Task: structure prediction
Amino acid sequence: MGAMNERARRPPRVLGPTIDDETRCVHYHGPTDVIAIKFKCCDEYYPCHRCHEEAAGHPARQWPEREALEPAVLCGRCRRELPVLEYMAVSACPGCGARFNERCSLHYPLYFAFGPETIGGEGSGKINE
Ligand SMILES: [Zn+2]
Ligand SMILES: [Zn+2]
Ligand SMILES: [Zn+2]
Result:
């Protein structure tokens, strides 16, 4: 709470039942559970979809593909915000190297209305046989 004009971006707050300063929550608190995700519906960060479900009081909305470059993933360790697309492409934080829980990808549909496979189309599954 300094008196100086703080023009740098403040780290966003993380809502929900977190249990430590690295955004682990009562639902997911393994060593690699260090991210929070911003929800499209309320523009607030929660550690997981269950936190949002319990604390937000409204249904979650997912990020549409056209907003894949929105910084909507927060590294709980260094507080860096990653665009959704970048988050999907890495297995650890580009800022601090914290490893991300790879099983989170199973939950992408809860947060994002698209997946890494729908973007870029590297392997579209259409292979000439
Ligand atoms: Zn919400
Ligand atoms: Zn949670
Ligand atoms: Zn980080």
Remarks:
- The helical segments are 49-55, 84-89, 108-111.
- The CA atoms of residues 64 and 91 lie 22 Å apart.
- Strands lie at 35-38, 45-46, 71-75, 81-83.
- The pocket of zinc ion (ligand 2) is lined by residues 16, 25-28, 47-48, 50-51 (CB under 6 Å).
